[in-house]
Amino acid sequence: MLAALTILAFPLSASAGSDKTHDAVRHAPVPHADDADKPWHLWGTREIHSTRMAAFAKWNGMYERYHREQLRRTARFASECRGADPASSAAHEASGPNRRSFAALVALARARRAQAGSMRQVDRKGLGPASTSCSQARWQRFLDSIQGLQPREQLARVNAYLNRAPYIIDPVNWGVADYWATPIEFLRKDGDCEDYAIAKYLALKSLGFDPAAMRIVVLEDRNLKVDHAVLAVRLDGEIYILDNQTPRIVEARRIHHYRPVYSINEQAWWLHSGWRPTNPRAGTPSERVWTALR
After folding, report:
1. Hey, where are the domains in the chain?
2. pTM for the complete prediction?
3. Strand 250-251 relative to strand 238-242: parallel, antiparallel, unpaired?
4. What CA–CA distance (Å, rounded) separates 294 from 51?
5. What is the tens place of the pLDDT at every residue in 67-81?
């Protein structure tokens, strides 16, 4: 679960675009870069752009671990998980959390809590368990299977695949209030809202999507009165939302109960302001402030 939010008060860049270059695109087709560079105005908000990323400790830490994981990848991981299939993973049993009994979820929570300390020690030393190799093998096979599909179909497939993982809050899963997991950590241990969004972001990047056309959006769900995070992808003039709360991708313009606070990708971040509810019963924007990623 995301920590309570406050608007981040650190210097903003006046630059209209990022000077950073992103990884070479491996596969076509890709979203139009010109589309991604235009202001998004998510849910009618104004946005202030910055390329100063130092304050986003959880995001930066996740990316450092992700790069270390990529460097450790070798050809042998597939042989360490012979015949593994996504359906055989305990994290994906019966197609997701809705099929689990309450007693099973309680037992899982207790087991995760008991293992949290030892797992954190393993993660500090580096991911090495056989289950991690298994997760990488399944993950790579899935990505390979959707190469060449149309971009919108890739969005739908990635969203559906990752949404099968059970939702588990960070205090139970990691023993800390807020933890931003890499895709491999998420596939191995499941996760909460931002972990789904991160895994989708990096999956789509590996498929050739331009990082400038994607953002992790930290927001307030005005219906449920909770903090939340989703992935937003700009494609052919439309902004699609990939959300762990729904199995289908949805156009942002069809969602009226999300108030974005900030959005981020590997190049920059954007502070959102000026949101107004389209449904009068949704109330006015909350005045409380959030602190995430610090």
Report:
1. 33-282
2. 0.72
3. antiparallel
4. 16
5. 998 887 654 454 555
